[in-house]
Amino acid sequence: MSDTLLEKPTRPEDWECCGGGCSPCVWDNYYADMERWQQQQKAQAEKNKSAGEG
């Protein structure tokens, strides 16, 4: 995993989804980005804990 911290993804506005069943939908991208961000946050917290920072 990269040392560059990701920004927390911004939730799409309701108007950003057309409801047309696009693949990928803005929501698909948001949830994938959020999962990567959460994994990175968890890894960073574990790293800090093991280093005695948290």
List the helices and strands and how they pair.
Elements: H1 26-50
Average of the residue pLDDT scores? 91
Give the SSE order as H and E letters: H
Q: What does the radius of gyration come to?
A: 15 Å
Helix coverage percent: 40-55%
In terms of structural class, how would the helical and strand content be classed?
mainly alpha
Sheet of most strands? none
The overall strand count is 0
Shape: elongated
Total helix count? 1
Strand content: under 5%
Distance between the termini: 20 Å
Regions with pLDDT < 50 over 5+ consecutive residues? Answer: none
Which descriptors apply to this entry?
54 residues; mainly alpha; 46% helix; 0% strand
Written description of the protein model:
The protein has 54 residues and is mostly helical. It is 46% helix and 0% strand. It is built from one helix and no strands. It has one helix at residues 26-50. The chain is elongated, with a radius of gyration of 15 Å. The mean pLDDT is 91.
